[in-house]
Structure formats: C-alpha cells, structure tokens
Amino acid sequence: MLGKYNHVDEYMQHLPSWMQPVFNQVRMLLLTFPEVTEKIRYNTPFYDCNGKMMIYFTVFQKTKLVLGFCNGYLLTDDVGILLHNQKQKYIRHWEFMHGAFIQDELLVQYIQQAINVSIHLQQTKHERKTR
After folding, report:
1. Whole-angstrom Cα distance, residue 63 to residue 83?
2. pTM score > 0.85 for this model?
3. Which residues in the chain belong to E strands, given as ranges?
C-alpha cells in the first residue's frame, strides 16, 4: 500500500482483495450518519464528526484491517471487542481479519457511541472557551 491517496476510493482499490468488501461495508455504515464525513488524512481514511477526527482505517501487516476509534478509551466496551495497544493512550481499535463477519447492529452501536463522545467533547471544549 504505497503511494499517496487523494480519495478514499483510491485507498480502497489498493487494499488486498479480501479487505475491500469489509472496508466498503464498514464505510457505508459510517456514512449513514449525517454527522460523519470522510477524508484522507495522513494517507489514511478518516471519519470525522463535525470536523473532528473520530475514526480511521489502517492495515496492519497486510493481515488485518483495523478500525481505530480516536477516543476509544471513553467508549463502553461491554462486548470486549475493542483492543488496546500500550503505545496508544486514547485509541481503541476493532480488528477485521480474513473471513470476518461484521455484525452491523453492533458496529452501528459503537459508531453511535463514538459520535456521542465526540459531540460531548466538542461541547465541553466550547463551554470551557466561553467561560
């Protein structure tokens, strides 16, 4: 996955073939939320909430498609699906491997929770500035 990507579609086309439908399924779920916009940032697809980074995609060792939640440490993870890398203080991620079955309802719950956290953080920051 070398090169510079200008559009998310370009990024997706360079994924291994098994990752492309997984990426597209998750991407379509993300884009059903009106608060969510996508853009390439750091050569990676990011999904913002009201202009603030919220979720991103990356590939790990060509074997895993990783969905990173930028403020994942604030998400409730009763299912235990989010993983934590010791080097990443705030980020939690969901890994998709070859043959992964995506539970749309569960993923939508995590996305909605990430949106709620993002909006709350933005409101809190705005309130501190206006004091």
Report:
1. 16
2. yes
3. 36-41, 44-49, 52-60, 64-69, 92-97
